[in-house]
């Protein structure tokens, strides 16, 4: 069908203000957050209801037009960016942003996919509950994107990945059928748990239109501490001690290398809250019951006595808590100011973190002269951002391969939380076993046999066609 006629048909479905075709307005939708991936699109379609999403998908299926679902565009793998053919249609659910209901007894929220994460968090907080998905992009990322990428963030250690929050899901399939599974049930073993197919599959199997999320009680007490340690081994001893002293109240356990914190100190002029050290830990504990500060003080006593930590500070105020967190959250920005960096969002078993960091750093520095490893991450759940600041001429793919091969040797994952998108498609094929890839292809062929949903993302076309 001629694109002009197709656009007319979209307008009939979603109304006058529901289609964007102006090249200047399309630009934002066709460029990813970091400006690394750029594409072209025929148009952006913005439905206002699930029935409209279904009608758009049916029309695209009938006309063989590929669709690229688009959330807040904060994904770091190019998953929401179209290819450069100009033939793909971007589907944005930003006009479907309602919080449909909140249940204070069952601690659940039914929310549409276009709702910004922070808006959903605030609505939960107004009802005295916590939506425990938290990441630095929460002011822009949307529920549909969060669930499609199975986002992680800073409190996975306690609350798990986004998948763990989903009780019910509403999706539109590749044929344009609405499947309503918006149940509020914690227990539901009636047949296949099909919703898991759409969580973390980056819009390649269906469109998420709404979800029922499990909320949690809002903690009333918080303790945040910044700790200086000599090595990742010592950091894990502090983690073990923290689990013993404050147990399930431990929310976040972030590990930062000395050089990564130095970048923040240098670029933002922030004063170090503790004495200089080779590594630092930022930990946060929250609870509905009191006694947290005492727990962290006991932790300090033990780790100092055993010389597992050299210095530490507990935040005295909300402002100081924010200052400590801002050191951790500014690392990515300061890294980009330090020059070109090659990023690896990897996970390994928690107890292997020290060995992995040492072996990978030595291997990278041996193979690529003049590079600097910038390692930091959510060590409490095994996820490290093993980034490398490199000279402009460095072969990024060769560097990726070196790091990912080591990750595989450690039984790790080449994408802990940022997904595959278009960025890591080749590496997924290289690093996952053949039976696992075969299984993934069978699922894709079953649910989207013509590869019209986000083609080129997660699985390469040649594998699906084979
Ligand atoms: C500063 C910063 C910090 C970040 N920190 C973290 C972090 O700590 N942890 C983490 O996990 N991620 C992090 N991210 C990555 C990003 O925020 C997450 O991947 C987020 O889940 C993406 O949501 P989004 O709405 O922006 O999705 P988009 O980027 O728009 O899309 C992401 C993917 O989901 C698909 N998609 C979007 N909406 C739908 C839908 N309704 N149905 C089906 N598919 C859909 C898209 O096609 C794409 O493949 C960070 C990003 C930034 C910029």
UniProtKB/TrEMBL annotation:
InterPro entries hit by this protein: FAD-bd_oxidored_4_C, FAD-bd_PCMH, FAD-bd_PCMH-like_sf, FAD-bd_PCMH_sub1, FAD-bd_PCMH_sub2, FAD-linked_Oxase-like_C, FAD-oxidored/transferase_4, Oxid_FAD_bind_N
Lineage: superkingdom: Bacteria
SUPFAM superfamilies tied to this protein: FAD-binding/transporter-associated domain-like (SSF56176), FAD-linked oxidases, C-terminal domain (SSF55103)
An individual GO BP term: respiratory electron transport chain
Alphabetized GO MF terms: catalytic activity; FAD binding
Residues annotated as domain FAD-binding PCMH-type: 37-218
Keyword Amino-acid biosynthesis: no
Record-linked Pfam families: FAD-oxidase_C, FAD_binding_4
UniProt entry keywords in alphabetical sequence: FAD, Flavoprotein
Family that this chain belongs to: Belongs to the FAD-binding oxidoreductase/transferase type 4 family.
Official protein name in the record: FAD-binding oxidoreductase
């Amino acid at each position: 069908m001629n694109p002009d006629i197709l656009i007319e048909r979209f307008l009939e479905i979603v109304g006058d203000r529901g289609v964007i075709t102006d090249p200047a307005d399309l630009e934002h939708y066709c460029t990813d957050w970091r400006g690394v991936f750029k594409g072209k699109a025929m148009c952006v379609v913005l439905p206002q209801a699930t029935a409209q999403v279904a009608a758009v998908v049916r029309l695209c299926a009938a006309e063989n037009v590929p669709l690229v679902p688009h959330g807040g565009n904060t994904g770091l793998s190019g998953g929401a960016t179209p290819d450069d053919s100009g033939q793909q249609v971007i589907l944005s659910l930003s006009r479907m942003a309602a919080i449909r209901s909140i249940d204070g007894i069952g601690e659940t929220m039914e929310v549409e996919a276009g709702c910004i994460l922070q808006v959903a968090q605030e609505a939960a907080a107004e009802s005295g509950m916590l939506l425990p998905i938290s990441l630095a992009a929460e002011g822009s990322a949307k529920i549909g994107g969060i669930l499609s990428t199975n986002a992680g963030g800073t409190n996975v250690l306690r609350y798990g990945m986004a998948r763990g929050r989903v009780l019910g899901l509403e999706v539109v399939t590749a044929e344009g059928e609405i499947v309503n599974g918006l149940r509020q049930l914690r227990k539901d073993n009636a047949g296949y748990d099909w919703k898991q197919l759409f969580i973390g599959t980056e819009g390649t199997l269906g469109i998420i239109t709404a979800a029922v999320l499990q909320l949690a009680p809002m903690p009333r007490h918080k303790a945040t501490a910044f700790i200086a340690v000599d090595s990742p081994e010592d950091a894990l001893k502090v983690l073990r001690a923290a689990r013993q002293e404050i147990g399930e109240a431990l929310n976040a356990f972030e590990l930062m290398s000395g050089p990564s914190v130095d970048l923040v100190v240098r670029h933002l002029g922030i004063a170090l809250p503790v004495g200089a050290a080779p590594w630092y830990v930022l930990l946060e504990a929250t609870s509905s019951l009191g006694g947290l500060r005492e727990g962290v003080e006991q932790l300090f006593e033990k780790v100092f006595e055993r010389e597992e930590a050299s210095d530490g500070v507990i935040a005295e105020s909300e402002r100081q808590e924010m200052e400590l967190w801002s050191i951790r959250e500014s690392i990515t920005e300061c890294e980009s100011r330090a020059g070109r960096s090659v990023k690896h969002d990897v996970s390994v078993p928690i107890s292997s973190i020290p060995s992995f960091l040492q072996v990978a750093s030595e291997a990278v520095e041996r193979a690529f002269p003049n590079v600097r490893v910038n390692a930091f991450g959510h060590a409490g759940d095994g996820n490290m951002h093993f980034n490398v600041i490199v000279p402009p001429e460095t072969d990024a793919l060769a560097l990726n391969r070196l790091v990912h091969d080591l990750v595989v040797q450690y039984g790790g994952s080449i994408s802990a939380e940022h997904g595959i998108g278009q960025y890591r498609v080749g590496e997924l094929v290289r690093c996952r076993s053949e039976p696992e890839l075969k299984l993934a292809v069978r699922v894709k062929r079953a649910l989207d046999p013509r590869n019209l949903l986000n083609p080129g993302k997660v699985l390469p076309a040649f594998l699906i066609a084979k």
